[in-house]
UniProtKB/TrEMBL annotation:
The keyword Lyase applies. It comes from mine drainage metagenome. The keyword Transmembrane applies. The chain crosses the membrane at residues 7-26, 32-50. This is Phosphatidylserine decarboxylase related protein.
Length: 203
């Protein structure tokens, strides 16, 4: 399954690649093979990037992103778990637990590399979720290359654990911010996690 943002790119490049290869074959125009092969290769790459597999997981608080855990840090009464996604990871993000989506906020800021410790101050999209644990935040953080955070959910709607909430185009970072006193964190920096599958914390 492909994320909807990827369909025009993948289908368009596949059609262009096939047409160029056909023209090259019919007219013996060798550059057409090169251009057609490049277009088809890009279509395959983007097809892998925009993949959107079905996910089901068990646990109190699940990962919101695929990738590796970059940071686990306390911030006063809260704990932040940040996951870095490289370009080969699935980039569809998911709700870590069920609740009510109170609001979605866009915040401006710099575009430092997403793996930088200071990336939490980058331009970002924040989802505020009212949950049985209290207010939980899911934060899509842009990076040097990742410039677009896409939201698929509207404020004022119910959110279910592991439901898709949106995606970031190209490698970046997603943080989950939880009430520290209500959870026990189960992951540490360097751990591999999968959105909607891997437990981040337990109550």
């Amino acid at each position: 399954m492909l994320a909807r943002e990827g369909l025009p790119w993948v289908l368009g490049l596949a059609v262009v690649g096939a047409l160029l290869a056909g023209i090259a074959y019919g007219g013996r125009w060798w550059p057409g093979y090169l251009l057609g092969g490049t277009a088809l290769g890009l279509a395959l790459f983007l097809g892998a990037f925009f993949r959107d597999p079905e996910r089901t997981g068990q646990g109190d608080v699940l990962s919101a992103a695929d990738g590796h855990v970059l940071v686990v840090g306390e911030e006063g009464p809260r704990v932040r778990i940040g996951t870095f996604m490289n370009v080969t990871d699935v980039h569809v993000n998911r709700f870590p637990l069920s609740g009510y989506l109170l609001r979605v906020e866009d915040r401006g800021g710099p575009r430092r590399p997403a793996f930088s410790p200071s990336a939490s101050g980058n331009a970002q999209k924040r989802y505020l979720l009212v949950s049985p644990l209290g207010i939980v935040e899911v934060v899509q953080i842009t990076g040097f290359l990742a410039r677009r955070c896409r939201s698929w959910q509207e404020p004022g709607t119910a959110a279910r654990r592991a439901d898709r909430l949106g995606m970031i185009l190209f490698g970046s970072r997603v943080d989950v911010v939880l009430p520290r006193a209500r959870v026990r964190v189960l992951v540490r920096p360097g751990d591999r996690v999968r959105a909607g599958c891997t437990p981040l914390a337990e109550v």
